[in-house]
Amino acid sequence: MTTLIDSDEHKALRAAVSAFARSRARDGDHGALWREAAKLGYIGVNLPQEYGGGGGGIAELSLICEELGAAGNPLLMMIVSPAICGTVIARFGTEAQKREWLPAMADGSRLMAFGITEPDAGSNSHRITTTARRDGASGDWLLTGRKVFVSGVDIADATLIVGRTEDARTGRLKPCLFIVGRDTPGFTRLAIDMELDSVERQFELVLDDVRLPADALVGEGGGEDAGLLQLFAGLNPERVMTAAFAIGMGRHALARAVAYARERTVWDAPIGAHQAIAHPLAQAHIELELARLMMQKAAHLYDAGDDVGAGEAANMAKYAAGEACVRAVDQAVHTLGGNGLTREFGLARLITASRVARIAPVSREMILNYVSHQTLGLPKSY
Questions:
Q1: Are 174 and 167 in contact (CB under 8 A)?
Q2: 141-151 and 173-181 as β-strands: parallel, antiparallel, unpaired?
Q3: How many whole angstroms separate alpha carbon 161 and alpha carbon 226?
């Protein structure tokens, strides 16, 4: 039980991050915010100390992500660069890859994006068609394929691409991860026109026989399941961090609504005195707190090395946080009425943003499939 209650260190970290985030202008220079957060050790808190990180885990990183969002200064790339890519490289990268990327990720000077989703694969990662083949005696890799909905490629120095290579022993395609530099020839990006108010843009990527050196492959190749292990090592933190991002957003919307309900007087008392306003806000708070508990459980399981237990909890946390965030934002906007749709109060843009936690990185329906099959033991429907 103690793992689900903030330690004194976590309470101090939460207070420090909150004060930092609230002192910065909302919708300001996100690049500067990222660099300042990195200088304070927040961005690389989960990365190993020997490579410039804080030596913490996903528990600390998710706490920071949540508090930044709750203050209205979310950093979406925290989910991608330190949580997914940093984790994968720290756990499976070669020594050279760790030395090249981890210190720069930790100090905020370099970012890495993550490309897995494909136009025809959707939630079915087994249908990924991005493939890599060896180029004869050179030992280089040639990577070909397409990716969609990749965040922050324009500001990232490289993208961690999930592809597939042919196993020499079996002839079957197996997953592998490659580090592809932003300006690598044959690697092109096209911004996707999103109706989403977000600093970080979404891109479609095209890889046309992109030539990569042998050391672009994460790790030493490993056994038959090495790429699969790498992939899931990054996906569990991604779900935990998405939950943190959603909880932070929900808390931010709820705080704005509560402040408004305390002061807004229509008849003889503030509208927050009426149960029709107060109860839905209280319910939103309860749901966010419950989601946070599952997120903390998932983070602690992952940091303890229990990948199987963390997989179940991370999916549940992401589901609960996505639902709680959508309801909190909806109730916040409804509490403000017409004002909830004005730019002044900054809540209307969250209506679209909050849906992301339901959709990405995995839909709530796929999480229900996971729980019904993996946890409840029901037959697969797909």
A1: yes
A2: unpaired
A3: 15
Say how far apart CA 282 and CA 138 lie, in whole Å: 63
CA-CA distance, 347 to 257, in Å (whole number)?
9
Q: First and final CA of the chain: distance in angstroms?
A: 36
Cut 0.90: pTM above it? yes
DSSP 217: B
The model's pLDDT over 129-176, given as tens digits with 9 standing for 90+, comes to 899 998 877 889 999 999 999 999 999 999 999 998 876 556 567 889
Residue 254 CA to residue 256 CA, distance in Å, equals 5
DSSP for 209-243 reads EEEE-GGGBSTT--STTHHHHHHHHHHHHHHHHHH
Give the tokens for residue 331: 């109730």
Place of tokens 């410039």: 52
DSSP string, 127-175: G---EEEE-GGG--EEEEEEEEEEETTTT-SEEEEEEEEE-TTT--EEE
pLDDT tens-digit series, residues 234-280: 899 999 999 999 999 999 999 999 999 999 999 899 999 999 999 99
Strands 202-212 and 141-151: antiparallel
Residue 246 neighbours by CB distance under 10 Å: 33
